[in-house]
Write a structure and sequence with these properties.
Blueprint lengths: L1 E10 L2 E11 L4 E5 L6 H8 L7 E6 L2 E2 L9 E4 L11 H12 L5 H10 L15 H14 L4 E5 L7 H12 L5 E5 L3 H7 L2 E6 L2 E6 H9 L5
Parallel strand pairs: 3-8, 3-9, 6-7, 7-8
Antiparallel strand pairs: 1-2, 1-4, 4-5, 9-10
């Protein structure tokens, strides 16, 4: 699970994260929601020690996070990630698989490419992939590592409706993972998440999806 305690991050005297506390339970899917500029990406980067924090701790799967040790239990898909356009889909996932282990599990690569419906396109250079295909390949690479926690920053950003539905279907199938993702789309959140972590003025309030929907219906906003 994910446990954030007293996380504070200041930029030029402004507290972007102000004593943030949050628990995401094991096998829960929780959406991180907030206005543009609220600090969602800052929170994710702070959780993963990509950004230093002023104070606070983050436990990932029961272990206090320090620089780089999150990779043992967490797979992270940023909003903008780097693939190699002149390599094929298969070559890309093989490359990233080799970064994590000496012996690549070819059967698992086949399973993950099949899971994201890219097996038939595995030998095509990714420079010819659509944005939706690139996002699904990123998910395949993420899922290859078989970590207990998945963290995704705007996983459907810039996708057309069909691409969004393909990615959501994959995420919806991950019932044995703890998933924490940032999103602006309540229709997507309702499909795949049980909880919402609402970031506002540097603080987080956690809701069930139903309660957060009621808050918006009663005139709340984000």
């Amino acid at each position: 699970m994910i446990e954030i305690s007293g996380l504070t991050k200041t930029f030029q005297k402004k507290k972007v994260l102000d004593d943030v506390h949050l628990v995401v339970e094991r096998n829960e899917c929780c959406a991180l929601v907030g206005r543009n500029g609220a600090g969602k990406s800052t929170l994710i980067h702070a959780m993963l020690s990509i950004l230093p924090v002023n104070s606070g701790t983050v436990k990932l799967n029961g272990v206090v996070n320090t620089k780089n040790n999150w990779k043992k239990s967490v797979a992270y898909l940023p909003e903008k990630f780097q693939l190699y356009p002149h390599l094929t889909g298969m070559e890309n996932i093989q490359f990233f698989a080799e970064l994590g282990e000496k012996k690549v599990n070819e059967k698992r690569i086949e399973e993950m490419l099949g899971k994201v419906s890219l097996w038939d396109d595995r030998n095509h250079q990714v420079k010819g992939y659509s944005k939706g295909m690139l996002q699904r390949l990123g998910l395949a690479i993420m899922l290859y590592y078989d970590t207990e926690i998945l963290i995704l920053d705007e996983p459907t950003s810039g996708l057309d409706p069909m691409g969004r539905e393909e990615v959501l279907a994959i995420l919806k199938s991950l019932t044995d993972k703890t998933v924490f993702l940032s999103s602006h789309h309540m229709d997507e959140i309702k499909q795949i998440c049980s909880h919402v972590a609402f970031l506002e003025n540097g603080k987080i309030t956690k809701y069930t999806v139903d309660d957060f929907t009621k808050k918006l219906t009663l005139g709340g906003s984000y």
